[in-house]
Write a structure and sequence with these properties.
With about 450 residues, this protein is mainly alpha-helical. About 65% of the residues lie in helices and about 5% in strands.
Length: about 450
């Protein structure tokens, strides 16, 4: 262990690293139950819940091992929140891609990430985006995740009356009451800083739901397993390869928008999380840069393509890695332990049906809160900054699309700078990104008109 991970050099030992690895796993284990809600049979993807669980565990294990072994950082990876919403609600929902085609797009995005990383272009692209917009993107994704949580909980419903677009749900509904109870429990656990509070809150809410449904006959949207044996479902393995035909037969507007979405969103998500977690561990240098960041990003890129092969959305580094770091984790041994836990979690598939949407919705809402913390760092008093940032933040939940929120914010940024005569402040790559977004909308409009 000492030779592999240089434990003494990093001021740690095997026992501490094991505890840290277990801490990280239990902090982010909720994704095993949450991913089927967003990507499973009741989502636009139509994938089997058991297949999503299997793919999630395998992709998380491989991704976590990769980042631990390539960079020797105590990070963990899994299918990303926000990124899975892009996959389900944007690629399969708004763009109408099949699950196989969307997986093919993720696989290609992973290959693009690898090329961008090894050439250094990925870092250059991220540096081209103004800092305020990066913070707005994180907050916007947080609001998008939160509204999905409110809708899944039944707390928010669409077109409640002729006078409103959305409104409060039916508080007499047992599932809504369960979600509210879960939200209260989760808030208490999080604000009192209980370790793995999100995971514990989800399990506690699910337990309440099980008692109400199986003991008192109150329907809580829980599906009791008919077979308690582990259900390893590999039905989506390799579906990305058979999905290439569907992907490239899709309208060109959807194809362009798909790749822009995957590449931009994952880049911002990964960089932000890596820097945040590394800062917690004390790995950043005096200039705020992360040594070996290319290795960490390469692990992320490889894990993305691997995740697509096994059947899940984009894999990314998790901010919950900071929980293991807080427990003393300092090397890739922490990641190794976390990865082993995800591999063992493959055998949890029979109990997934016991965790209803009402139990996972509070997690989405709280994660949304956490991601909105970056709003405080945006200079809202500067109208040049406020307009593009607001359109980015508000656009994602209002348009129900992360892509369109990004597009409106980026386009507004360039327009504002040009109008103010601040051309030199616009990075050349921003013109390229904005041009791609404009091309996407033009092609979409022409396709709708039947011109192409």
């Amino acid at each position: 262990m000492e030779k592999l991970f240089k434990l003494k050099e990093h001021g740690t030992n095997v026992r501490t690293e094991i505890i840290a690895g277990l801490t990280t796993f239990f902090t982010m284990a909720y994704i095993i139950f949450l991913n089927p809600v967003i990507l499973g049979s009741n989502s636009p993807t139509g994938m089997a819940d058991t297949a999503v669980v299997t793919a999630t565990c395998i992709a998380a294990a491989i991704g976590t091992w990769l980042i631990g072994w390539l960079s020797n950082y105590p990070m963990a990876q899994a299918p990303g929140l926000g990124l899975n919403a892009v996959f389900s609600y944007t690629l399969c929902g708004a763009f109408g891609l099949s699950a196989g085609a969307a997986l093919a797009a993720v696989f290609i995005a992973g290959i693009i990430f690898i090329l961008l990383t090894v050439t250094g272009a990925r870092t250059a692209i991220v540096k081209a985006i103004p800092l305020d917009l990066k913070k707005a993107i994180s907050a916007g994704i947080g609001l998008f995740i939160a509204i999905i949580g409110f809708v899944n909980a039944g707390i928010v419903v669409g077109e409640k009356s002729a006078a409103t677009t959305v409104g409060l749900g039916n508080f007499a509904s047992p599932t809504v009451l369960l979600a509210l109870a879960g939200l209260v429990i989760t808030i208490i656990l999080v604000v009192t800083k209980v370790p793995a509070g999100l995971f514990i809150g989800m399990i506690a809410t699910a337990a309440i739901g099980c008692v109400c449904q199986f003991c008192f006959g109150i329907k809580m949207g829980i599906t009791a397993p008919t077979n308690w044996a582990p259900q390893l479902d590999f039905s989506m393995f390799g579906a990305c390869f058979s999905g290439f035909g569907d992907l490239f037969s899709a309208p060109i507007a959807s194809l362009i928008a798909t790749m822009i979405t995957l590449v931009l969103v994952d880049m911002f998500d990964t960089i932000g999380t890596l820097i945040g977690a590394a800062g917690k561990a004390g790995y950043l240098d005096e200039n705020g840069n992360l040594p070996k960041i290319e290795r960490a990003m390469l692990a992320d890129a490889i894990a993305t393509s691997t995740g697509a092969i096994v059947g899940t959305s984009t894999v990314t580094t998790y901010v919950e890695s900071t929980s293991g770091i807080a427990a003393g984790g300092r090397t890739g041994l922490t990641s190794t332990v976390t990865g082993i836990c995800f591999a063992l979690a493959l055998f949890l598939s029979p109990v997934v049906g016991l965790v209803p949407s009402a139990a996972t919705a509070p997690i989405l809402i709280i994660v949304g809160v956490m991601m909105c913390s970056s709003l405080k760092d945006i200079d809202w008093a500067d109208i040049d900054v406020a307009i593009p940032c607001f359109l980015t933040v508000a656009g994602m939940p209002f348009f129900y699309s992360i892509t369109d929120g990004l597009a409106f914010g980026f386009i507004a940024y360039v327009i504002v700078k040009l109008a103010r005569g601040k051309v030199k402040e616009i990075h050349p790559l921003m013109y390229v990104i904005v041009l791609l977004f404009v091309i996407k909308y033009v092609i979409s409009a022409l396709t709708t008109m039947g011109v192409i």
